[in-house]
Every structure is written in structure tokens, then in C-alpha cells.
């Protein structure tokens, strides 16, 4: 072996540099796709800088990349219509790399070095919890586009995704009414599913349903055989599965559910993290007949949605789909723009915050409005996966549902509310409602 | 009875997946002593091969679609084996006997492969092909020429920079001219869907136990792979050579065994098995650039617990881990214990899938404290790496 190395080292350098070259090539292509359409600095020379903070690499890149695309679309549309306050918006894209400390670092960088006036971003609750102290310490502003577990109300965050009472609770109600009283709860092992399931259990107890079991998979795990055994022994004659799994585990779960004989006619599954993009990645064959609850589906029949979908496809490709977090991101950018225009400034965050409350927007999902608790009212919809991989909407609330960040089924937060226009209470983020 | 049958079947089916993922590693790590962190990515390539074959067969029509696995399995083996040989010839063979450097180099390779799958497009294929053609073609042309000897130190860097430059610019120019059709990634960062053929999607209920066909298929595939490896290693000429080189490299070389070819072959075999494993897991789980990472830790765990260098050890370890995982995770213990007792609470606490994993790790660590060399330690003189 030893003789090989004297001769081999030089060759190794050659191959090493070849490998380096290849990786450079690979990297060289990445910016071309990532910043495509971005950085339109045309205009009077002065721009308004905004930050976009999402995972472009790592396990969450799967979901977050398309939210970046939707944010980009909203910014481009505003720019081509003349910008905000006569200035073009200049997005600065940062990669949180699916790593929560990195999110906090990049948020600091966007605020301190790039001097952005607002940040659009984050997907997982873990990343939001990681950047929250940064935004609060610097009294800055984040617009968060994903449905989440609630139980949070920050002055520095605007939440354009659903609170639990705008997604999970109506879904449970609908299931109780249409699909049965016995629920098995399956989730990934982190903050969102655990909080969501606490809420569901409290709600089922209050409304005459029954939780027959719950189980959590580690994030990324694909071995679901023990869970399927548990479901079968807890629900021998069928029942409802409420699914808060995230990421790769979802694929494994649905692929193995069918072979295990748990078909949607006896075991209807309601998911809150499966949207159009995920259906494509899991495979329609496995999902047909199962349900999902969202505020927006690509199949929503409004003129605004038609324009949105067409604009998105024209920009990013005909085979792309739109989903709820993307629409929420799109709403976020537009509401922020309206708030800035009403405040007359983008730099004075206090004024923008005040102006944001009460802003209404005709979103693709229907009309939405920013509430004093920094969440928006949303229409709740339940969709069934059809043959084409899109959702057939089987239920929609007649009116947009008002957001309640503090859950009213969970004992610790029952009776609490949040109102950032109040100055007479000590903590407007969480205080007891009058008469409760 | 039903209960016992169910436990055995489900434990075996979890174990079969673990074993299939670990088999290639048992050869590469166990026999050659190479710590290949890119093993998971070879599995991922196998899974993507299955995806491509599936799409090709879907285009042919429904009757063909049912049989795409017949092509996907050998193709996944061939592709992963090919990439494995490239990896061995270009990186690993310079690092034999240096485990730390091998570990870092293969970790780098795994990251490159992941990013490659995320961003590969026609544009990038063109760029890489052009680069390889110019660089390696240039090296080959200049080899032995006087000009190359005089400017010896400069040939490689100049060629490298030139071919990189030409490759990238041509790619960008073509991409700019042709647009989305050329620059769009083939797979992207999103996962892709692999749908099992319809005959594998269902299951059968016998004696009150549900047998998903896809699990039966994977158990059968694992068995076939095991028999094939056994026959190859113990009954074929090249298997004999592999075993000889493993036991004593210099003596084998003296006896005229081409050790370098044997190295490449062994690595190809291990990588190819990773490809087959990738094909199998694509039927069960997700196919995305990170797919391989979900399995690499488990695969090493199986090989270490079983005893490095012993394939029998890996088999027993995989089945054992699968069985323990299932029994704890599904809370079967709690059925036999009276609620309220301490033991019941103990098992109840670990009876969730994520806590079962913790428990399995604790058991493995404890086990390795008692038997550091694993279930089947290698006896006699240690392997000459």
C-alpha cells in the first residue's frame, strides 16, 4: 500500500481539484435558480430593503423554497406596479439552512448589516421561536406565513397563517359531525404536533369525542410499523386518524397505511401539513380519498386566485402548484405594502405596525383582514384529495373566521386574549378578557 | 398466536429494511474497513433510479407499469455500483488505511451527491460533460508530450481553469438562450413520488394478521440478496479472491491476485447493494435528496452491533434491532402487565415511536459496553487494512 501514496498524492490533488471544480459547477448553478427574477434594483436609485429568511438548503428546503417563490412574486408584482411610496422593493435573500441557530444569526445579519425594514420568513415553529428574541430585542418586524400551533402573540410578529381555531378546530368539528367520534392522533415529535394534539384532546373532551391513542415519530423517521399496529388495536373497526406529521415521515406513513389495510373509507385521515406540493411528493395513489384542512387550496374558485395561479405559473413554470403557506406569504407582502402606504413611511416600524392593524386585502382565498392581535381572519376549508392530486373542497366556512392566538380549549390559556392596540393593560400580548 | 405471529412478522419486516440498508455497508465497512459516509447517498441514487424507471414505464402504459421493479432493481444496482467504482477509483483508493481522512472525504462526497441531485438540470449536465471532456481529454492529449513535460507544474491548473471557464460559460449561455426548459432542475429539492405497482400496494389478512405485500416483497428481496452474496463470496472465484485479500493483502498480491481490481469489485458490490436498498426504501418512504441520511446511522448501528467483518452478525443484529424496536414502540409489553405497577409505567413511557428509539439506543450502548466487538467478534489476527 505504502508505495501507492508517493505516486498517488499528486494524482489525488488532480482528482481533488476535479472534485472541487465539480462542486463549484454545482454551486455555480445554484444562484441562477435561487435569485431568478430577484434583485430588481431598477428605479430611482433608492430602494426599500426587505429581508427574506427561509431554508434554501437542508430538510426544510422542500417546503420553504416555494414560499420564497411566492414572496418573490408578490414583490415583483408590487415593483412592476410602481413600488411602495414610489420606491422599488429590494429583497435580500438569506438561507436559514433548516438550522434554528442559523435562523437567529441570519435575522441579526439582515437587521444590523443590511438594514432591512421588514423580514418575511420562517416555516417551522422552532425557527420562529429561535428568531423571536432577536426581533423583540431589536424591536423589529417579522411576517410569518405558515399555519402554526398558536399560544403566541408577539408585538414584533405578524402571523398570516392560520391559528389553531382557523384550521385544527374547524377540522375536528367537521370530523366529529361527518366521520366519527373516535380519534387517533399521529404527529412528529416537536412543538407544533404536541401543542396541536393538546388542543385537539381538550376539544374532543369538550365536544363528546374520544382520543383513543396518540403517538409521535422523530422528525425524519420513516419506520411507522409500530404506529400502524397501535392504530389497528386502538381502532379495530375504523375511526378517524388526525395527522400532524411533518416532512418525510408523511410519505412513509401514507405509503404504508394502504398496504396495512387502513383505507380512507374506514380510516379517514385528516392532515394539516399536507398541501398540493406534498401530494405530488407522496404520490396521488396513496392519498386519494384522504382529507386536509387549510385556508387556501389551489382549487379555490375566486377571480383573485385565478390571477394568482396564472401569474405564479407564468413566472415559475406550468407544472408548479400553489398552496396555503405560499398564499399566506403573498398576503403578508401585500398587507405590509398597504400598511407602509398608509403610514407614509417604511422605516418607522411603530407607525407601520399601527397602520397594519385593520388592513383588508382581497386575497386568493377570499377577503382577509389584519386583527389587533396581529393575526388575520381566514376562511377555513376542508379538501379531499382527488385523482388529479388537487383538492376537492368539501366544506368551507361561510364567513372568514376571526383569529384566536390563545386557545380557548386549553386550561392554561382559556380566557386570555391579545390586543396590541390596548394601552390600558400591562401586557397587551396576553391578558385576561373582561367577563371571563 | 395472532399476537406472536404479528410481532414476528412486523419485527422481521423492520429488520429486513435495516438489513438491506446495512448489507452493502457490511461489505464495504466490514470487509474492506472503509468508513463510507456516502453509503446513504448511494441508496438515494438507487431510489432516484427507481423514480426514473417508474416514469419511463408509466409512459408505456398501465400493463407495463406493474412490472417496472424488474428493471428498476438491476438498474439501481448497476448505477450505484458504477458510482461506487468511480468513487473508489477517484477518491477512496488513495486513502486506504487512513480511516479519518476517508470519513471526511466520503462525507464531502455525500454532500456533493445530495446537491447534485437537487440542482442537476440539462444545463448542468452539459457543463459537467463539457468540463470533463475538456479537462480529462486535455490531460490525455498532453500526456507524455514535450510541452507537457516542460510546463509540468502548470498543465493541471491551466487546464482546470480553462475547462471550468469554458464549461460554465457555455452552460450559462445555453441556459440563457433556451430558458426554463434547460435550466429547470430534473428533480429539484422537493421529494419525488415513487408509487409502488398496484399489486404491491395492497395487503392480505391471514389469521388476523395484516401482511402488506410491499413488506413481503422487501423481505423476499433481502433474502435473495443474502443468498446471492453468500454464493458470490463463498462459491465463486472472485469471492475467494475477495476473502483472500481481506485476510492478507500482501500475501494475496504475491500470489498474483490483482488486489486493486478486487478492491474496486468489492466496493462495487457494496455500493450496488446500497442501490438495491434504495430501490426498496423508495416503496416505503420518501425519495428526496436527504433520503440517505435517514438510514446511514441505522446502517452503521447494525454493522457495529453485529460485529465488524461478519455478515452473519449484521443479519442477527438487524433482525434483533427491528424486533426490539417494534415490541417496545408498539407497546406490546404493556398488554401483559397490570396497569399502575412500576414496570407498566416504565414500558408505557417508552411505548411511543420516538421513545422506543431512545430505548433501542440505550440498549445498544449498554450492549457495546459488555461486548465492544459486537455480537460476532472477529477471531484471530485482525484484518490487514
TrEMBL record, chain A:
<protein>
    <submittedName>
        <fullName>Urea ABC transporter substrate-binding protein</fullName>
    </submittedName>
</protein>
<dbReference type="GO" id="GO:0006865">
    <property type="term" value="P:amino acid transport"/>
</dbReference>
<dbReference type="InterPro" id="IPR017777">
    <property type="entry name" value="ABC_urea-bd_UrtA"/>
</dbReference>
<dbReference type="InterPro" id="IPR000709">
    <property type="entry name" value="Leu_Ile_Val-bd"/>
</dbReference>
<dbReference type="InterPro" id="IPR028082">
    <property type="entry name" value="Peripla_BP_I"/>
</dbReference>
<dbReference type="Pfam" id="PF13433">
    <property type="entry name" value="Peripla_BP_5"/>
</dbReference>
From TrEMBL, chain B:
<dbReference type="InterPro" id="IPR001851">
    <property type="entry name" value="ABC_transp_permease"/>
</dbReference>
<protein>
    <submittedName>
        <fullName>Branched-chain amino acid ABC transporter permease</fullName>
    </submittedName>
</protein>
<comment type="similarity">
    <text>Belongs to the binding-protein-dependent transport system permease family. LivHM subfamily.</text>
</comment>
<feature type="transmembrane region" description="Helical">
    <location>
        <begin position="99"/>
        <end position="117"/>
    </location>
</feature>
<keyword id="KW-1003">Cell membrane</keyword>
<keyword id="KW-0812">Transmembrane</keyword>
<feature type="transmembrane region" description="Helical">
    <location>
        <begin position="67"/>
        <end position="87"/>
    </location>
</feature>
<keyword id="KW-0029">Amino-acid transport</keyword>
<dbReference type="Pfam" id="PF02653">
    <property type="entry name" value="BPD_transp_2"/>
</dbReference>
<keyword id="KW-0472">Membrane</keyword>
<feature type="transmembrane region" description="Helical">
    <location>
        <begin position="12"/>
        <end position="35"/>
    </location>
</feature>
<feature type="transmembrane region" description="Helical">
    <location>
        <begin position="265"/>
        <end position="287"/>
    </location>
</feature>
<feature type="transmembrane region" description="Helical">
    <location>
        <begin position="299"/>
        <end position="328"/>
    </location>
</feature>
<dbReference type="InterPro" id="IPR052157">
    <property type="entry name" value="BCAA_transport_permease"/>
</dbReference>
<feature type="transmembrane region" description="Helical">
    <location>
        <begin position="154"/>
        <end position="178"/>
    </location>
</feature>
<dbReference type="GO" id="GO:0006865">
    <property type="term" value="P:amino acid transport"/>
</dbReference>
<feature type="transmembrane region" description="Helical">
    <location>
        <begin position="349"/>
        <end position="370"/>
    </location>
</feature>
<dbReference type="GO" id="GO:0022857">
    <property type="term" value="F:transmembrane transporter activity"/>
</dbReference>
<keyword id="KW-1133">Transmembrane helix</keyword>
<feature type="transmembrane region" description="Helical">
    <location>
        <begin position="123"/>
        <end position="142"/>
    </location>
</feature>
<dbReference type="GO" id="GO:0005886">
    <property type="term" value="C:plasma membrane"/>
</dbReference>
<keyword id="KW-0813">Transport</keyword>
Amino acid at each position: 500500500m505504502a508505495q501507492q501514496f508517493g505516486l498517488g498524492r499528486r494524482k489525488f490533488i488532480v482528482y481533488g481539484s476535479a472534485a472541487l471544480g465539480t462542486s463549484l459547477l454545482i454551486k455555480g448553478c445554484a444562484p441562477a435558480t435561487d435569485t431568478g427574477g430577484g434583485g430588481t434594483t431598477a428605479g430611482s436609485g433608492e430602494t426599500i430593503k426587505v429581508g427574506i429568511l427561509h431554508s434554501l438548503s437542508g430538510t426544510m428546503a422542500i417546503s420553504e423554497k416555494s414560499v420564497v417563490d411566492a414572496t418573490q412574486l408578490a414583490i415583483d408584482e408590487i415593483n412592476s406596479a410602481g413600488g411602495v411610496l414610489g420606491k422599488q422593493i429590494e429583497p435580500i435573500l438569506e438561507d436559514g439552512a433548516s438550522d434554528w441557530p442559523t435562523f437567529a444569526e441570519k435575522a441579526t445579519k439582515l437587521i444590523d448589516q443590511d438594514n432591512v425594514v421588514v423580514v418575511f420568513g420562517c416555516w417551522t415553529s422552532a425557527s420562529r421561536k429561535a428568531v423571536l428574541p432577536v426581533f423583540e430585542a431589536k424591536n423589529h418586524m417579522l411576517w410569518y406565513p405558515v399555519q402554526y400551533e398558536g399560544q403566541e402573540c408577539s408585538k414584533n410578529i405578524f402571523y398570516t397563517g392560520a391559528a389553531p381555531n382557523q384550521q385544527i378546530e374547524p377540522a375536528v368539528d367537521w370530523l366529529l359531525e361527518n366521520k366519527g367520534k373516535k380519534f387517533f392522533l399521529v404527529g412528529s415529535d416537536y412543538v407544533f404536533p404536541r401543542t396541536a394534539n393538546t388542543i385537539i384532546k381538550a376539544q374532543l373532551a369538550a365536544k363528546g369525542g374520544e382520543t383513543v391513542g396518540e403517538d409521535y415519530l422523530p422528525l425524519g423517521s420513516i419506520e411507522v410499523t409500530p404506529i400502524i399496529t397501535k392504530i389497528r388495536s386502538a381502532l379495530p373497526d375504523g375511526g378517524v386518524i388526525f395527522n400532524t406529521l411533518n416532512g418525510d415521515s408523511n410519505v412513509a406513513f401514507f405509503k404504508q397505511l394502504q398496504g396495512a389495510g387502513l383505507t380512507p373509507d374506514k380510516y379517514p385521515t385528516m392532515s394539516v401539513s399536507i398541501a398540493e406540493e406534498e401530494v405530488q411528493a407522496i404520490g396521488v395513489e396513496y392519498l386519494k380519498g384522504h382529507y386536509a384542512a387549510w385556508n387556501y387550496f389551489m382549487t379555490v374558485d375566486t377571480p383573485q386566485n385565478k390571477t394568482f395561479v396564472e401569474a405564479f405559473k407564468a413566472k415559475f413554470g406550468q407544472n408548479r402548484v400553489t398552496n396555503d403557506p405560499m398564499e399566506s406569504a403573498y398576503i403578508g407582502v401585500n398587507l405590509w405594502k398597504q400598511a407602509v402606504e398608509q403610514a407614509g413611511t417604511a422605516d418607522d416600524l411603530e407607525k407601520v405596525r399601527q397602520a397594519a392593524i385593520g388592513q383588508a386585502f382581497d386575497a386568493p382565498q377570499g377577503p382577509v383582514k389584519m386583527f389587533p392581535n396581529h393575526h388575520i381572519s381566514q376562511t377555513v376549508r376542508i379538501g379531499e384529495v382527488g385523482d388529479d392530486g388537487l383538492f376537492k373542497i368539501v366544506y368551507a366556512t361561510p364567513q372568514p373566521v376571526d383569529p384566536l392566538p390563545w386557545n380557548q380549549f386549553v386550561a392554561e390559556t382559556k380566557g386570555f386574549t391579545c390586543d396590541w392596540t390596548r394601552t390600558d393593560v400591562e401586557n397587551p400580548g396576553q391578558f385576561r378578557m373582561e367577563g371571563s | 398466536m395472532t399476537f406472536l405471529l404479528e410481532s414476528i412478522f412486523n419485527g422481521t419486516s423492520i429488520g429486513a429494511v435495516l438489513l438491506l440498508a446495512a448489507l452493502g455497508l457490511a461489505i464495504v465497512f466490514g470487509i474492506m474497513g472503509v468508513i463510507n459516509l456516502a453509503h446513504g447517498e448511494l441508496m438515494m441514487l438507487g431510489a432516484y433510479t427507481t423514480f426514473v424507471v417508474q416514469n419511463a414505464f408509466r409512459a408505456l402504459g398501465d400493463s407495463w407499469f406493474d412490472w417496472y421493479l424488474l428493471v428498476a432493481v438491476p438498474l439501481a444496482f448497476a448505477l450505484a455500483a458504477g458510482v461506487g467504482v468511480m468513487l473508489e477509483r477517484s477518491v477512496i483508493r488513495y486513502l486506504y488505511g487512513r480511516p479519518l481522512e476517508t470519513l471526511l472525504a466520503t462525507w464531502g462526497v455525500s454532500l456533493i451527491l445530495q446537491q447534485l441531485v437537487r440542482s442537476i438540470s440539462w444545463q448542468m449536465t452539459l457543463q459537467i460533460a463539457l468540463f470533463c471532456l475538456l479537462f480529462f481529454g486535455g490531460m490525455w492529449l498532453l500526456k507524455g508530450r514535450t510541452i507537457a513535460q516542460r510546463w509540468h507544474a502548470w498543465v493541471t491548473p491551466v487546464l482546470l481553469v480553462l475547462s471550468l471557464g469554458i464549461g460554465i460559460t457555455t452552460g450559462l449561455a445555453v441556459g440563457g438562450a433556451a430558458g426554463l426548459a434547460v435550466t429547470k432542475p430534473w428533480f429539484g429539492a422537493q421529494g419525488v413520488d415513487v408509487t409502488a405497482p398496484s399489486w404491491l400496494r395492497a395487503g392480505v389478512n391471514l389469521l388476523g394478521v395484516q401482511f402488506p405485500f410491499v413488506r413481503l416483497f422487501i423481505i423476499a428481496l433481502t433474502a435473495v440478496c443474502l443468498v446471492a452474496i453468500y454464493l458470490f463470496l463463498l462459491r465463486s472465484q472472485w469471492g475467494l479472491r475477495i476473502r483472500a485479500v481481506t485476510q492478507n493483502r500482501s500475501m494475496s498480491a504475491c500470489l498474483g491476485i490483482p488486489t486493486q481490481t478486487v478492491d474496486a469489485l468489492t466496493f462495487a458490490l457494496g455500493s450496488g447493494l446500497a442501490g438495491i436498498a434504495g430501490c426498496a426504501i423508495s416503496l416505503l418512504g420518501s425519495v428526496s435528496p436527504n433520503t440517505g441520511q435517514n438510514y446511514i446511522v441505522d446502517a452503521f448501528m447494525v454493522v457495529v452491533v453485529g460485529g465488524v467483518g461478519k455478515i452473519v452478525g449484521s443479519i442477527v443484529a438487524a433482525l434483533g434491532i427491528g424486533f426490539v424496536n417494534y415490541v417496545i414502540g408498539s407497546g406490546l409489553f404493556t398488554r401483559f402487565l397490570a396497569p399502575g405497577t412500576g414496570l407498566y409505567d416504565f414500558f408505557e413511557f417508552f411505548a411511543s415511536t420516538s421513545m422506543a428509539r431512545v430505548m433501542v439506543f440505550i440498549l445498544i450502548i449498554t450492549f457495546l459496553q459488555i461486548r465492544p466487538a459486537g455480537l460476532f467478534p472477529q477471531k484471530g489476527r485482525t484484518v490487514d487494512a
